[in-house]
Amino acid sequence: MPRPLGELEDAVMTRVWQWNRPVTVREVLEDLQQERSIAYTTVMTVMDNLHQKGWVRREAEGRAYRYTAVSTRAAYSAALMNEAWSTSDNPAAALVAFFGMMSAEQRDALRDAVRVVQYDDESVAETPAEPRGEPRAEAPAEPPSTPSGEPSPEHSPEPSPEPSAPPEAEGRTAGHPGPPGR
Question: Cα separation of 177 and 127, whole Å?
Answer without folding.
Answer: 16
